[in-house]
Hints:
The complex is a heterodimer of chains A (about 280) and B (about 325). Chain A has about 280 residues and is an alpha/beta fold. Chain A contains 10 helices and 10 strands. Helix content of chain A is about 35%, strand content about 20%. In chain A, strand 9 and strand 10 form a beta hairpin. In chain A, about 40% of the residues are buried. In chain B, about 40% of the residues lie in helices and about 15% in strands. Chain B has a 7-stranded mixed β-sheet with strand order 3-4-5-2-6-7-8, sandwiched between helices. In chain B, a hairpin with a 2-residue loop joins strand 4 and strand 5. The chains are: A alpha/beta (about 280), B alpha/beta (about 325). At the A-B interface, strand 5, helix 5, helix 6 and helix 8 of A face strand 1, helix 4, strand 3 and helix 5 of B.
Amino acid sequence: MESNKSILIIGKPESAKTxxxxxxxxxxxxxxxxxxxxxxxxxxxPIEDAIKRLRGANETQxxxxxxxxxxxxxxxxxxxNISLNCPDYGGxxxxxxxxxxxxxxxxxxxxxxxxxWIFFIRPKQVEALFDLSNKSYKANIEESKKSTEQVFKVSxxxxxxxxxxxxxxxxxxxxxxxxxxxxxxxxxxCWDEVDEVIAPNNLLAKLLPLLNQFIHTNWHKDAVNVIGxxxxxxxxxxxxxKDKYLDDGSTKFAYVVKNNTTDKVYDIxxxxxxxx
Amino acid sequence: xxxxxxxxxxxxxxxxxxxxxxxxPIESCTNLKSVATEVKKKEKIASEESESVLWSGNYFNxxxxxxxxxxxxxxxxxxxxxxxxxxxxxxxxxxTLLLNGHFLNDLFFSNSYTLSAWENLAxxxxxxxxxxxxxxxxxxxxDFYSIYHLGIKYNNSLKNVLFADASGEVFGQWxxxxxxxxxxxxxxxxxxxxxxxxFIDCEALINGRSEAKENILDxxxxxxENLKNRPVVMVWSKADRISEVRTTIKQDLEEELxxxxxxxxxxxEVSNHTLNDPDPNCHINNLAVFEWLFKQINVPSNIHLELxxxxxxxxxFLNYRK
Lengths: 276, 322
């Protein structure tokens, strides 16, 4: 029997959703992790190429942002059947939602019926902004002179806060009291690109401080989680790294780092387990 | 109900129930049936329509405030001051500081329905090839309102704060003539704000000396009218240059403003130019201005209403006690 739990995976283009989903499907097909499929997914065609590439020790290719594929995975954790949904595999719909400020019926339904949201954010994609408040005035002028002319665009933090506000509106959640449903997990992806030893919750606070405060102000503390995840483990450019994949399989090196820790846990299905 | 409508323009069924085709029973009329089907289709399409959120992200005007009324009574902070006194830049810096993780002590950011507007302000404080453009002058059109929203959690309670900004030129006109036809937006701010940030432009005082001081006092005099017990925070803006303001002018102005606002007011020096990192005028005082005013507006009431009703009253309503 299908439970009423439903997880939404959301992320902008190139936030590493494809690699995670490919590795996740490989693991869920086996009987070795906590997560399994309770029935075969109807269509994983969009991920199939990524799965093949990882098996051959090649990095996955960027999904066309305009891809409107919806990935629906019927998974089972312990004895509970759960629906794991990635409604915007390409990621472009998120930009469209932010521009048009509307959700189509499919999005509305997925948001209303979901009990857990996982937001994929790739720290390396977060752009550093130089403004009057950052550092001393003169140092910023010199750094800024080197850059090209900036055109107005909304900051990443503001976009993510707005998207969450809009989704909460559709789900009819109020800011008046602490949110417990849906649970919120921030997945900081490509963790192997993070070049400092830091716990994921601290990196979120450092990198996207206003988003972090928005989350902690509005959600109940037990309903928020921040997880670092490296679905690939390392870059696959060198032959030595490719050999590791070819010798031991693609999933062995993928890991998560939980909320306030710095230790690697070599099972990326933990992201889903932790999000519930 | 869908079944009670007819799509035949000659038929009066909708108004008096008579079928143009004299169908008997009425349900057998093809026009009636076709309308019913069409309505159902429309209902289905409507249910499949996209859902839009209520806010655009842009700044509010007064009619937008009703969007918040379902949440809680919004608190309006009016920004008051002469042209170029850095009122809009203050808001730009306030949001920029929050965006960069310089937070208020026990006031927590919960949400904002004007994020695009805040972002526009913040963009104006970013370095663009070595230069900062600062926000453009606020339009002086009397119908122009730019109201910025912040949802703030304080003591586990959500407060909707609205910062109402208007053109400095209009404040100047309003100071001279309170009924100036071009000052309706400023009158609205003065009437509706729960507290005020009053800007004193150090740069104007350096360049314009006594003349600039009198211009500032003109607006202060007008603000004082019907102020009642609404709090005012006096902000000495561009305070990285405050040492250049002549001592006598500064002392005179401080004294006269104290006479105007008395115990309702306090003062802070703020600057958008960071001389150090951290810089108290920028990183601390910009936030402290809002925090002080917010807490003045939200000061807990210590008044305990006790009705002097004898406990043996026969009135059940008045005898009700917690």
